Amino acid sequence: MGDGPRTLVIIPDKCVGCGTCKLACSMVKASGDAMRRTRIHIHNISRERYVQMTCLQCVDAACIKACDTGALMRNEATGAVELQENRCISCGLCEVACPFGHMHFNRATGKPEKCDLCSGDPACAKFCPHGALLYR
Amino acid sequence: MKITIDGKKVEAKRWDTVLTAARRAGIAIPSLCQLDSLENVGACRLCMVEVNHPHWRGAKLVTACEYPVESGLEVITTSEEVLRLRRANLDLLLARAPESRRLQQMSAEMGLEQSGYVRPDKGTACILCMLCTRVCEKLGCNAIAPAGRGLDKRIDTPFGGYPDTCIGCGACAAICPVDCIEMTDTAKTRTIWGRTFEFVKCAECGTPVITVEYRDYAIAHRSLPADYYNECSDCKRRKLAVKFAKVGG
Prior knowledge:
Oligomer: heterodimer
Strand content of chain B: 15-25%
Radius of gyration of chain B: 23 Å
Number of domains of chain B: 2
Distance between the termini of chain B: 61 Å
Structural class of chain B: alpha+beta
Strand order of the largest sheet of chain A: 1-8
Helix content of chain B: 25-40%
Low-confidence stretches of chain B: none
Number of strands of chain A: 8
Number of strands of chain B: 11
Order of helices and strands of chain B: EEHEEEHHHEEHEEEEHH
Largest sheet of chain A: 2 strands, antiparallel
């Protein structure tokens, strides 16, 4: 293990599209009731070709630049960009600004939802049965 | 400086409010209208606490979100009187907006089953918490503001007319704790505060992304390339996934 925070490594070659990561994410982040609202998505590119997509925790993050209130900040310990709910003014610009489509603005709560690496213990990587998501 | 909250010695910084000092120390005080990024206005009055000081002649009741700390301040967050006041305030808010999930949740936490008051027929659910106006101000638009006084006080556009400076971002509707701001989205337009906005449509699939005015605002006020606002999240994600698949071989 090198210096600095660990990262979530996505290995599409190993993904079979089983959706366990999505299920794990929904259980942890949405009490299992919203598979559409998970923070990880699986894209079926072609037959038997799947790519898992989740927030890449960009070094020069567009969401942080779009946020004028400092509600999105990097957690230096985990390297994740995290939302501080009590600073968020529900403007929704982060969702539109993310060039990779990984911010999900929840209209019901008025707050964006994003991957926060489960505060340093991502459930998706823990449950992936094929080693297609690694946290190292 | 040192202050005491519920008998616990707490370190507070200059310019802290009682609420921030308490939250930092892990002491929960309920609040509805307070956000760390907005000016505190003490509108909901649910964060009432009792403050006292050795140099004072007696305790007083204040809103924690507005009251600045001073050395030696003694704060009580759960006295009988404080809880009674908070419940009474919540009772009134709940009468205004009985359908609000947020208020229902708070009522359950405070042991208030249902409001003892009835809302007049004509009233709206607006509890005048000023979150919408402060959010609008924070974004620099100032399209809405409180208007009228007393029973007539309401949130409105300037003179109830066409909101020139509104950009249709929808932040006011999203932040409203009682969901009383009407916003209607169709496939092409968004209507809010009596004004209709055109949507920027996703360049790939045509789903509405943001209003044209909001995109122009974002281009002018945020340091991001202008083409960041042209596609929907699903299409952006799919594009990147296709790229990843190619790299994988």
